[in-house]
Amino acid sequence: MTENTEHSNEHVYFINQLYRDFLLPTILGDDNATILYWAGKRIARHYDLADLDDLVEFFNMAQFGQLEKVKERRSSTTFEISGQNVEDRLNSDSKEFSLESGMIAEAVQKSTGRTTESEIHILDKAKKVQIIARFG
């Protein structure tokens, strides 16, 4: 069973890499990051991802990485995405995490009821991605 699961994970990662790092940037050009961010917000609305547990489960299922809330403040929440898929993407010079950022922004907005936008920080040494959701 483990071998089939590993093969399945590799397949999902390959598909993600193919469309995220090659196909979409080729089609969308300079608008890639903006469109992916808004697409992420739409995905979160479509799948009703307002609960952190649902968002974590979605990230795992989609092979986006392990999502963890690491800090909560009065006007922001900080998340980190880590794991082998994130490391592999960063090692291949893929710094595009706008889809994930949009999903997180929308989920936080739904859960807080406050307008939310998020920003991406690549933590190269730690091989993680930090996303800060700021709300007004």
User: Largest sheet at a glance?
Assistant: 4 strands, antiparallel
Summed over residues and divided by their number, the pLDDT gives a mean of 90
Termini distance? 47 Å
* DSSP strand count: 4
Could you name the CATH topology? Muramoyl-pentapeptide Carboxypeptidase, domain 2
List the strand order in the largest sheet: 1-2-4-3
Protein name: DUF2507 domain-containing protein
Organism: Lactobacillus kefiranofaciens
Explain what you see:
This is DUF2507 domain-containing protein. InterPro entries: DUF2507, NO_sig/Golgi_transp_ligand-bd. It holds the Pfam family DUF2507. It comes from Lactobacillus kefiranofaciens. With 136 residues, this protein is an alpha+beta fold. It has a single domain, classed as Trafficking protein particle complex subunit 3 (Muramoyl-pentapeptide Carboxypeptidase, domain 2), CATH 3.30.1380.20. The protein is 55% helix and 22% strand. The protein has helices at residues 2-28, 32-46, 52-61, 84-91, 98-112; strands at 66-72, 76-82, 116-123, 128-135. It has a 4-stranded antiparallel β-sheet. A hairpin with a 4-residue loop joins β3 (116-123) and β4. It is globular. The protein starts with a helix and ends with a strand.
Write the layout of secondary structure elements.
Blueprint: H1 2-28, H2 32-46, H3 52-61, E1 66-72, E2 76-82, H4 84-91, H5 98-112, E3 116-123, E4 128-135
Antiparallel strand pairs: 1-2, 2-4, 3-4
Pfam family, one: DUF2507
Organism: Lactobacillus kefiranofaciens
Protein name: DUF2507 domain-containing protein
